[in-house]
Amino acid sequence: MSVAEPLTLAVLVSGNGSNLQAIIDRIEAGEIHARIACVISNVHGVFALERARRHGIPTVIHANGAFATRREYDNALVEVLRTHRVELVVLAGFMRILSDVMIGAFPGAVINIHPALLPAFPGLHAQKQALEYGVKFSGCTVHFVDNGTDTGPIILQAVVPVMQDDSEESLSRRILQEEHRIFPESIRLFAEGKLSFHGRQVRISS
Ligand code: GAR
Q1: What is the mean pLDDT of residues 84-101?
Q2: Which of 56, 86, 112, 147 suits 118 as a labelling partner, its CA being 20 to 30 A distant?
Q3: pTM assigned to the model
């Protein structure tokens, strides 16, 4: 019996990389049939890069300032991804908006984690937005990336309570615990071919 090749991922990061770590751990545990071909950061010196190195994963710095326009940045990024034969692009705390160049190059194959229950609180500082609004529940969303900001088809969501005395940090920590569960799980579903589109609805087969 022939065994299918693992799905080739690139994980794009800008910071701590705790979601990257959760993905690495599930792959190393043999729970996701995938391999991370490279970790790409738009910021130098972030801890996510150190996490990648500790696991022998190649790293690439694709710095914000090195390109004149968003499209030039994305064209060069597509080239890096193609060189590594990437099949799924995973935005794990990548704090940069992608243009139609990237989305067009990887249709249905770019996913993002957002620390709120979309469509509520898209964009930056989602946890702060939730606290200021006064919602009683928030959470996180894994979604396919389209040309909008945090508007693409939703794969998985998880809900957490918001406490009266929550700070941005305490709420972020509670949400992150759920991120670390649903993001790797979404990648597993993708790798196993279990996700399909019906309009903008993502259906999950068992
Ligand atoms: C996560 O909370 C993720 O949802 C958020 O950045 C954090 C990255 O943490 N992403 C966004 O806000 C994207 N708009 P990590 O570097 O520890 O994975």
Answers
A1: 97
A2: 86
A3: 0.97
Domain final residue, candidates 44, 77, 107 = 107
Cα separation, 4 vs 34, whole angstroms: 10
pLDDT at 3 over 90: no
Q: Is the pLDDT reported for residue 2 higher than 80?
A: no
Q: Answer with the one of 84, 107, 130 that is the final residue of a domain.
A: 107
Residues 61 and 141 in one domain: no
For a pocket test of ligand 1, which of 36, 41, 114, 181 has the largest count of ligand atoms closer than 8 A to its C-beta?
Answer: 114
Look up the CATH number of the domain holding residue 54.
3.40.50.170
Provide the annotated active-site residues: 114
Q: What number is the average pLDDT over the span 46-57?
A: 98
19 appears as a binding residue in the annotation: yes
Give yes or no for residue 115 CB within 6 A of ligand 1.
yes
User: Between β-strands 7-13 and 88-91, what pairing exists: parallel, antiparallel or unpaired?
Assistant: parallel
**Residue found by looking up tokens 């890096």 in the block:** 80
Q: Are residues 61 and 121 in the same domain?
A: no
The beta strand positions in the chain, using DSSP E, are 7-13, 34-41, 59-61, 88-91, 110-114, 137-144, 154-161, 195-198, 201-204
Q: Which of 16, 113, 181 to mutate to test the pocket of ligand 1 (most atoms within 8 A of CB)?
A: 113
The string of pLDDT tens digits covering residues 65-88 is 889 999 999 999 999 999 999 999
